[in-house]
Design a protein that fits this description.
Pfam families: FAD_binding_6, Fer2, NAD_binding_1. It comes from Caenispirillum salinarum AK4. The chain has about 350 residues and is α/β, with parallel strands linked by helices. The protein starts with a strand and ends with a strand. It contains eight helices and 18 strands. The strands form four sheets. A six-stranded antiparallel beta sheet has the order 4-3-6-1-2-5, covered by helices on one side. It has a five-stranded parallel beta sheet with strand order 9-8-7-10-11, with helices on both faces. It has a five-stranded mixed beta sheet with strand order 13-12-18-14-16. The chain folds into three domains: about 100 residues, Elongation Factor Tu (Ef-tu), domain 3; about 130 residues, Nucleotide-binding domain of ferredoxin-NADP reductase (FNR) module (Rossmann fold, 3-Layer(aba) Sandwich), CATH 3.40.50.80; about 90 residues, Ubiquitin-like (UB roll), CATH 3.10.20. It is globular, with a radius of gyration of 21 Å.
Length: about 350
Amino acid sequence: MARFNTLTVSDIKRETEDCVSIGFDVPEDLRDAYDFRQGQYLTLKTTIDGEEVRRSYSICAGVPEGRLRVAVKTVPGGVFSTYANSRLHPGDVLEVMPPAGRFTTPIEPEKAKSYVLFAAGSGITPVMSIVKTVLALEPDSDVTLFYGNRRGGSIIFREDLEDLKNTYMDRLRVFHVLSRDVQQTDLLRGRLDREKVDALLDAFVDLETTDHVFVCGPEGMTEAVRDALKDRAFPSGHVHFELFGAPGQAKAAAKPASEPTGEQTTVRITMDGLNTEFAMDRAETVLDAGRTAGLDLPFACKGGVCATCRCKVVDGDVAMDVNYGLEEAEVKAGYILSCQARPKTKSLTVDFDA
């Protein structure tokens, strides 16, 4: 099981009025642990005003850049995002978990592939890592990016995208879709809803030659792209989603603590090769009960989005309140989000090492 390590902030770059990117110094003895694949994220932990805060943020650097960097956009009421944008400085330290996440595909330098990517707002962060890595390491592959924002001034990594377009003129196409700024064509004006996604696919994409589609943004946009591709019979196994929530969604997604049911479940948890057994009320989540029992179980958002708390049911059964972080195949294989899972059986065995 991955653990937090203390990393020093090397630099902070103002990307937009409400977004910064944060670079980290990685000691030589931890470099292997912090190697990442394009599209992965980091879970950060610190204490803010006396309270422990954990959040997950996507890596925005490309693999060939050899550096570790995430982007953090301020959200209203966001404790960590406000701290990162206003109080964090180079030289400060944060607790950082090694890279995780499955919003990625293998890089195959010998193949020529076509990628189509949809992003909105800060959803560009993992997509930026994918764009940089694919263009640098798959020399015959091409990328088409549709990026939705309200205005031109809110486009994160705008200069970086322009530089990439200039460097890879024949292999990268970027279409900015703005909802509140005037555009030269109606096709690029508005929100990335179902109607807009259909129009963009019809105008610019040949799905028969497309190998992978990546989508990162709010739930509405994600569903619009998913439905459009499904109607076009594009293979679901080649569509990759990373959901981020609107402000407060993670808190809203987490079901409030229920009154104790009086029904007990004996839980056995495997982590780091060690087994721990305890009793819990079925109204609790596995994550909360495990932490109450003294286990340092991994988690970040507690809203069913980031999948940091992912584990596998070995025996027994659970019900999950919500699931935004696991794919259907993972659920069928027995994986759960422990922050959303409540026992349904008298005994339950879960493995965090799986």
